[in-house]
Amino acid sequence: MVTPVRVVIALCLLAPFVAMLWVGSYAKTDPAYIGIPFFYWYQMLWVLVSTGLTMTAYTLWRRDQRARRTRSGGGAQ
């Protein structure tokens, strides 16, 4: 069943892949940040962003699963 929450979860998990596979968007050296070429700091930034998005997706997934169990009367497992 596709719900808005599951769409948000999918987008959170898909965004880092799209960002890293779209090499043309970051295959350059400028703008440099404290002497680090854009190519490197962009990828390192996505490590942090990916962590946040994965945590968000996991939290939403747990909330969605709890709500489904409550609606179906499954109780705690």
Automatic annotation (TrEMBL):
Which is a Pfam family this sequence falls into?
DUF3311
Which InterPro entries does this entry report, sorted A to Z?
DUF3311
Keywords in alphabetical order:
Membrane, Transmembrane, Transmembrane helix
Q: Where are the membrane-spanning stretches?
A: 7-27, 39-61
At the top level, the lineage of the source is: Bacteria
Q: What is this protein called?
A: DUF3311 domain-containing protein
Q: Which source organism does the UniProt entry give? A: Streptomyces antibioticus
